[in-house]
Amino acid sequence: MLTIEGLISVLGLCLTCHNKISNFQKSIFTIPSTTCYSNELTVVVYNINFGHNQELLNACRLLKEYAQYVAQVRTFARNFPFAEAVEHAVGYCIKNEILSDFLTKNRAEVIAMSIFEYDEEKHMKSEREEWREIGRTEGREEGRIEGRTEGLQIGLDNLSLLLNSLMNAGKSEEVRHALSDRAYREQLYREYFSKCK
After folding, report:
1. Separation of CA 55 from chain center
2. How far apart are CA 110 and CA 131, in angstroms?
3. Shortest CA distance to 114 belongs to which of 79, 87, 93, 76?
4. Torsion angle in degrees (nearest 10) through CA of 42, 128, 76, 78
5. Over the chain (197 residues), what is each successive 10-residue block's mean pLDDT?
6. Which residues 6+ apart lie within 8 Å of 178 measured at CB?
7. Can you give the pTM of this predicted structure?
């Protein structure tokens, strides 16, 4: 449920915490003075779900409160439909002074956005299922094509064996008849291949 847009909004609110976060980052990262710079980028991802990276969350009250809001939505979602869970979480957070000013001013937008983000996750799951089904269908079709191709090859090999056998036996009239009459050809197959078993 935590999206880039949501995180950016919270981080925008955290400008007042910038010095604390900068100090937090400096305590984690040190760049040696002999570092050679290249076109390579290393991205460090922090889990800001409530209960993780407590030092970072403590460095910015609003970021911590955002993590608490997300945790409340998840908690309420266990017992309520998602839209209701979001409403309960917003009410709980306002009552408990968690992002209360922001949530009070932007309640409708926060609820709508949280529900939209949820629907997007549901949509992505649905998309994955749809693509899986498309893959299965394409796989079945490829299997059918391969099966037809293999069956055609076996049929041609059998026809060749039958015709060669008839030609070697001097039965050229039966060859012509087999080529023009499917029922006669199938009869010859049964006769010829039953002898081969």
Report:
1. 32
2. 31
3. 87
4. -120
5. 47 48 52 56 80 87 91 90 91 94 91 74 73 89 91 88 88 87 87 69
6. 162, 163, 166, 184, 185, 188
7. 0.47
